[in-house]
Amino acid sequence: MKFHSNGKLLITGEYAVLDGAKGLALPTKQGQSLEVKNNNSNKLNWKSLDEAGELWFEGNFEFAAGNFKLLNEGNEVGKRLEKLLQEAHQLNPEIFNEQQGFDVVTRLDFNRDWGLGTSSTLVNNLANWFKIDAYRLLKKTFGGSGYDIAAAQHKQPITYQITSSGPSILKTDFNPGFSNEIFFVYLNEKKNSRNAIKHYRELPQSNKNGLIDKTSALTQQFIACETLTEFELLINVHETLIAKTLQLPKIKQVRFSDFPGAIKSLGAWGGDFILVTGNKEEVFQYFNQKGFHTIFEYNKLIF
């Protein structure tokens, strides 16, 4: 058995999507695969390979009396995976029994420091293997809004919104005619999204008044906009709105004030990727000079 899930970038609605704002999510062409083969033991042997095919994690799990036990003590990645497997098993106990074992190999298409969804693609792949609801598995383990699970399951831009009846996921025709002037730049540091969410949750409610409606309206405007000039204006409006909410300065203001194009933070502010606009040659020259060498053209990363 083999499964594959797509990575993700959240273009609008960061933070606010947790409270019901509509966000625009773009699945990435790069993701993660999971391959499962039966073996003749009651053990699960797990190997995780990075984008270069190098082993970055290896763990062995024993399965007995309905429980997984990590045999490699002191391994934090292994302990998180043990919890994932245990929660998946509780949601569907039919996959594992004590007379059955598996060899599992995961393969990333992207660098796991990039924040494109190492965890969400794993959760979605595991949910597919165990034939369970990926959103339920996410809620029982990593938490978060779930937009990354939606992205893992789609191959085109989507809007994502948490509603009283569950996630609302709609395919959208977001395909800007100026996509050759949109780029994604990695800031050379991975941001801890759990810490970022904790900071947002602890903000006073007065900071968030009107945030959901304003962010949802901006998402629709992003989808509908037809010119780069309008797109850049919307970026600046969105950045101002989130900066005011978080009481944090904009990334452009702090680090790239002399850049002529627009810059938007993506996901947890201060790390992972930013979206930038401009001429290809100028974008690459500017960010390379500042030490940022992981730069993607829109159409090479996004479906």
UniProtKB/TrEMBL annotation:
GO molecular function: kinase activity
Gene3D superfamilies registered for this protein in UniProt: 3.30.230.10
Database matches in SUPFAM superfamilies: Ribosomal protein S5 domain 2-like (SSF54211)
Keywords: Kinase, Transferase
Top-rank lineage group of the source organism: Bacteria
Alphabetized InterPro entries for the sequence: GHMP_GYDIA-like, Ribosomal_Su5_D2-typ_SF, Ribsml_uS5_D2-typ_fold_subgr
Record NCBIfam families: GHMP_GYDIA (NF040656)
Name of the molecule in the record: Mevalonate kinase
Organism, scientific name: Salegentibacter echinorum
